[in-house]
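Weekly structure sync, notes
Attendees: PL (lead), two postdocs, one rotation student
Agenda item 3: pending single-chain targets
PL asked that the sequence for the first pending target be pasted directly into the notes so everyone works from the same version. It is reproduced below exactly as submitted, 378 residues in total.
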Amino acid sequence: MRDSTKAIIGNTKPESVVDHNLVPELSFEGVKVERRPARRGDGSPAEGLYNMWITLDNPAQYNSYTTEMVKGTILAFRAASNARDVNAVVFTGTGDKAFCTGGNTKEYAEYYAGNPQEYRQYMRLFNDMVSAILSCDKPVICRVNGMRIGGGQEIGMAADFSVAQDLANFGQAGPKHGSAAIGGATDFLPVMIGCEQAMVSGTLCEPFSAHKAYRLGIISQVVPALKIDGEFVANPTVVTNRMFDDYGRIVHGEFKTGEALKAGRALIRSGEVDLSLLDEAVESLCAKLIETFPECMTKSLEELRKPKLEAWNRNHEDSRAWLALNMMNEARSGFRAFNEGNREVGREIDFVALRRALAEATPWTPELIESLMPGGEG
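Predicted structure, written out during the meeting:
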């Protein structure tokens, strides 16, 4: 049956097809693009069909995206939409430490801080990257290979599915580092996990586990990645074996505390990280997607994305303007603190000193910013 269908298609194929890509080659700084052979649900090859893997490739800086990487990601998703032989897109990062931790704070601190007109243009590119994910004609799977924080969480939530290894952490960073999570999180989080949990994530900026992300509904699947003595075990720093504590509070997916947390971290250090189960889960999802009508799939994606798209399109231009102006004060301080700080002195400003200064109507000056830096006099 399939052979006869293939013969019919072969006889009716046009001699040439139009190339709708914007660039002739998919070669970008900091972004890897590759076609991987697709498979059917039974594991057999789906000859002539592929899944396109778009990989953020900046592991030394936890796959934070530079301006050039944003450009490459936009064009890669556009190419995936155009590719007639591509079934699905897998969006991921290099290594096992991070999917993406957001914008490159070194670039932010050293070029964009205090340069709002330039950051406004950068945010145009960022907006286009989010829109490229949300408007991709193929289903997009975020393969969460490690931390998904800040802007990394935002571009991850723009995907249609998220499959995570359970050592990964999720969360926002905006108000802790001089910004607001208005690059998608304030649009997507209320839709995906409800207003109360969105408020917790977007304001307190406390990271949460992949198990909690699954419980909240922000990812569709979580798999173990830690191997101890050759066997996979669940993340030992997270409560995974019961749902409620003695007071009826949900603790499933929450981080352990005290000695239990220390012991869990020690166990992680003693083992090895193996992402083979993550890859199996991603490939299995891609195989499920291939057994569908492609145009019906695209239309379904377009309709199911509307809650996220409507919020995103309503807000992102105003957000771009605010984020640019914010580069003159709080972002200028926060990104510099993160870039110049370290584990010993910290990577955050002295928030109490800032609030005290503003309460006294102190203007934003270079001297004020300097006094707020980690390790400063405050």
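Discussion points:
- The longest strand covers residues 45-56.
- The two ends are 76 Å apart (CA to CA).
Action: rotation student to compare against the earlier draft before next sync.
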